[in-house]
Please model this.
Amino acid sequence: MARIAVIDKKKCHPDKCGNYLCARLCPINRMGEQCITKGSDGKAVIDEKLCTGCGICPKKCPFGAITIINLPQELDREPIHRFGQNGFALYSLPTPIFGKVVGIIGRNGIGKSTAIKILANIQKPNFGKDHDGDIKEIIAYFKGTEAQGYFEKLRDGQIKISYKPQQVDLIPKQYTGTVSELLKKVDEKKQYETIIQELELTQILESKLHELSGGELQRIAIAATVLKKANVYFFDEPTSYLDIKQRIKIARFIKNLASDPEIAVMVIEHDLIILDYMTDMIHLMYGHESVYGVVSGVKTTKNGINVYLSGFLKEENMRFRDQPIKFNPPIVAPQTRENTLTEWTPIDYTQGRFHLTAESGEINKGDVVGILGQNGIGKTTFVKILAGVLKTKEDNALKLKVAYKPQYLEGGEELVMAALARAIQKYEIQLIRPLNLKDLFMRKLNELSGGELQRVAIAHCLSQDADLMLMDEPSAYLDVEQRLMVSKVIKEMMFTTGKSAIIVDHDLLFIDYLSDKLIVFDGVPALSGHVTGPYTMKQGMNTFLSGIDITFRRDEENYRPRVNKEDSQKDKEQKSTGNLYYT
Ligand code: SF4
Ligand code: SF4
Model:
């Protein structure tokens, strides 16, 4: 059986494990062979041909640096790309289709970005060797598959690529100057005026790139990508940092690109409602995080997302989650004095030019209340006022114990293990295991990635001895799988402990899955915000969606919300009856 041995070099510290503990314990080494050796960089190296997969070294390495995996039989060939010996291996590629938007769904660390970089000709595949392959080798590798035709066209100059990278926060480091200077420079299509209107960039054209927010940089990166003359467009996570209204707008915009049969579009996206809305077909990616990744065959979007939620790929005989994710219609407990947890009084708060008002509201014991609204209209301010982090003249802070997870997380020198001491002691099964936090225990908070820090902060907040958990954007930086897991964890914690939560988020599926009720924000970004609710889910969604011009139906298999096609019979019917979300 093919076997892969991956060593996470960041975690391998031979000087701290007692001098190559793994090599000293490996039975093959003990028989006199060189299965685990010292690499030229001083880190451990495993010879996959000699390794028998006995499982000793992954268990004994004190830093969890080693993963040994037996690969599925069909992967008994060289990978398309490998990040060095004992590095991550990618085994297949998705295929762009002309006239269609093709999506890629899968967890982080499974090779999604690498796959599209290879298709976009940014990363040369090395086929597991120590040098990059040339186009001849690539075409030969894919002989008889759809990808062969794609790479032949690329070789013959029939494909021109435009690519939006994932990390838009790096743009100010690569370009100085203003937004208009950058966009005019890349405007090969001479569509500058149209695109800035469509992506609502007119207000920030003269701003310097380093002055902009993540959401503004995201829209600029998308504008720059589409202004280039190309016939294959790649978008790596085009909706991060955007609010729901902007996500829908961007999804429509990207969808529209592929209405030209000569254009192929490929996107990586973690927001399942947006992925569903934006794409025609999808590939699922599975494997083992940071070890290997495989791309499934192409599926229709509806079927592909349902397969993803079911956790089992039938054709590949691959289970990637223990349990399926299903959505249930919300059950609303009646509001009575006995089950009210807390109430807040009307809020009237001014900060500079910004003015926030909120009607009074109350929350039930055990309820999860979602907050929906666009960026810049005071959602975080509202949550901070309730948490007592921001003081108001009337003192609107809730008079009960509140645990608060802020939107922007800061990591200090503390070890994860120390930060999560209470969670480890009390909620090993409910929090530590499902959020996969054990591997992070020995790392410092300031060494964690955005997604790792987010999971730690969520576990920390949920483990507090508090009556109400206030969480600001818990889905940010998380991949689709982690979002599904976090929503499940929060819901189950509230159910079993009887505590309550208020959650601000932009991922509508996440909010739908979690929430019993909704608070809705209305207003003008940077100027004013007005808060109403909590509403029932039906009332709340109808109030929120009336400003966005979309309607939702439910998937018959798992009851997940799906955006209706504009002007379809369902869309028209629902708009006429005012049932925009639940029918
Ligand atoms: Fe030590 Fe683990 Fe590195 Fe092996 S992989 S040398 S046990 S730290
Ligand atoms: Fe050696 Fe392989 Fe066993 Fe590790 S899993 S101890 S490398 S034989």
